[in-house]
Amino acid sequence: MRGGARDAVAPARGLAHGPFTWRFTTPLYVGSALNPVNSSIIATALVPIAVELHVSVGSTAVLISSLYLASAVAQPTAGKLAEVFGARRIFLSGIVLVLLGGVVGGLGQNLAALTVARVLIGIGTSAGFPCAMVLIRRRAEDTGLDTPPGGVLGGIAIAGMATAAVGPPVGGLLVGAAGWRWAFLINIPVTLAALAMAVRWLPKDPVPEGGRSGFRQVADRIDLPGIVGFATSMSALVIFLMGLPRVRWAALAVCVLSAVPTVVWELRKTAPFFDFRGLAANGALARTYLRQALTLLGVYSVLYGMTQWTQAAHGMSTVAAGLLLLPMGAVSALLARPLAKRNLVRGPLIASAVTMLVGSAGIMLLTSGSPVIAIVLVSLVFGVTSAATTVGNQTALYLAAPPDQIGTASGLFRTFGYLGSITSAVIGGLVFRDGVSDHGLHTLGLVLVVAGFAVLSLTVLDRRLMGRGTRRPAGTHDTRDSQDAPVNLIKENRA
Known about the structure:
Order of helices and strands: HHHHHHHHHHHHHHHHHHHHH
Largest sheet: none
Shape: globular
Number of strands: 0
Structural class: mainly alpha
Distance between the termini: 11 Å
Helix content: over 70%
Radius of gyration: 22 Å
C-alpha cells in the first residue's frame, strides 16, 4: 500500500481496543449485505409489479437481469476505483447511488423507471464488498497483522452470502404487508443508516497519489479503456447467457469482438485493470474464482429453482416458499463466523463440495409429494455449502490476491459468483422449459451433482490449499516445500 501517504488508522482513534472494533466493521457489513439482499428481495415482487403496471410477468425478469448485469460489471470496477481514489470515497458514493435507486424505484410508474432503479442499485451496491476488503486489508497491514482477520472476514461472509437467502422471505413479508414498492423503498432507511455510520466511523482515505490530475492521467491510472472493454464484453456475455436456450448471435459477436482487443490491450498495459498475466501466474486465485462460480451455481439453483418448484409443483404460496429458505440462511449465518475465525481454507472447501453433492443428491430424491421437512433438510444442507464456500474461498482470496489489487480481485470474485448465479438461472430455464415438474427438478439435481464433483476435484487436487491461512512475516523465509506451505498463496502474488 502507500505507506506514509495513507491515513494512519490512528492509534488514538481506538486501535488500543483492537483494530477491528464494531464501529469499523458495522458499516462494512451493512454495505456488503446490500447487494445480495437486493439481488433476491425482488423475487416475490415480480407478479404484483406485473399486475399493477399491466405488463407480462415475463417482462419483469428485466428487473433481475439488469441488477445482475450492472453488478457483474461494477464489482471489479468499484474495486479498481477504490484502489486508486480511496475505498471510503467509493463506498460512500455507492451508498448514495443505492439511496437514489430506492427513491426512483419507490416512485416509479413504469417498468423503464424500475429498471433504471435496479441498475442504480446494482452499481451502488457493488461498491460494498470490494471497498470493505480494501479497508480491512489496509487496517490489517497498518496494525502489523500477519494472519487474515478471520472474525471480520466471517462477518463479511455472513453479509455477503447468508443474507441472500433472507431476501425472498423478507421480500414476501414486505410485499404482502405494504406492497411491492417496499422492495425498493426498504433501501432508503437502510442506506441512510449506513451513510451515517460510514461518514462517522470509517477512517478517511489517503490523499490520492499525484493529487489533482487531469482526465488523461486519471483515465490512465484506472485503465479506462480496459474497464470499458471489460464492461462491453461482460455485458454482452451476460446478455448471451440470459438469453439461452435461444442463441443471441449479436450478443455473442459483441462479446468476442470486444474481448479480443481488450485482452490485447491489457497484455500490453503496465498496470492493467484485468491482469491476465498475473491471474495466469496466480493459480490459487484463478481456482478460487472458478470454485466460487461453480458452488454458487448450486446455491442459487436452490434459491431460485427450488423456490419455483415448491410453488408450481408442490403448491405452496409465495410467502411459504420464501419462508422455507430461512433455515438455509440461518445455518449459513451461524456457521460462517466460527469457521472464518479459524482462518481455515481447505477444510471448509472440502465440506462445501461434499455438502453440495449430498444436497444435489437430495434434490434428485424430492417429489411433489415429499413432506415439507424433506425440502427443509435439503435447504439446510445447502446452508452448510453456502457458509463453507464463502468462508473458504473468501479467505483464499484474501491470501492469494496481491495487496495492491485486493479491490479489483474482490470485485472479480463477486463477478464470478454472479456468473454462477446467472448460469443457474439459465439451467433452471432449460430444465423447466416444458413446465415446472419433478422431472425438471431431478435433472437440475443431476447437473448440480456434476458441478459438485468439479468443485471437489478443484479442492482435493489443489496442493496449494492448506488447512489454515497464515502470512509469513516480512523478512522471514519459508524453507518448506513450496507446494505444502500455507504462505505459498502469498508467495504467488506479484510484487
